[in-house]
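Obj: model holo form, ligand = flavin mononucleotide.
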Amino acid sequence: MKHVVVLGVTGSIAAYKAAELCGELTKRGCDVNVIMTESATRLVTPQTFLTLSRNPVITSLWGIEDWRPGHIALADKSSILVIAPCTANLMGKMANGIADDALSTYYLTHTGKTIIAPAMNPKMWKHPAVTENAKTLKKRGVEIVGPASGRVACGDNGIGRMEKTEKIITAMDEK
Ligand SMILES: Cc1cc2nc3c(=O)[nH]c(=O)nc-3n(C[C@H](O)[C@H](O)[C@H](O)COP(=O)(O)O)c2cc1C
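Output (holo structure tokens):
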């Protein structure tokens, strides 16, 4: 597998798991380009992904020195977008076409395969708004991997854990 990947990282407590995914994809020869939301940067630093991906990390729509906005340049070269972890908030923005940061704006420019690995508290995952957003995204061809069942960071049990790295990579490899 040698994809040009955009890895979106959002403000879930599972954001640290994206570092493992990033490192694994780089090791497998993928060209990994990370876009972090502002909330994600409060949980894991861009430096982590800079080092693991060996590419610049996008954390904002603004302040890019290239003549072309970063999200447009990436859309032209990437074949796959994987958002792991994906918050309830980002799912809502994707389902409604909201583009108010680098990742949600990138999503609207991306024409290739899109995979999300939601991660959230089980009560959030069960909320009708999130269920509806998941349905909308699936209908539009977004592949949803997980979430898995088990104990989440806040101590609750149920469906909401980010799916394992291997399962996300398997989904990326499937046609
Ligand atoms: C410590 C902490 C952990 C959080 N974990 C999650 C989570 O696992 N899933 C989720 O959907 N939101 C979680 N949130 C809430 C999101 O960070 C919040 O909804 C934020 O607006 C998401 O922004 P983003 O989608 O742009 O990253 C968490 C918030 C905090 C403070």
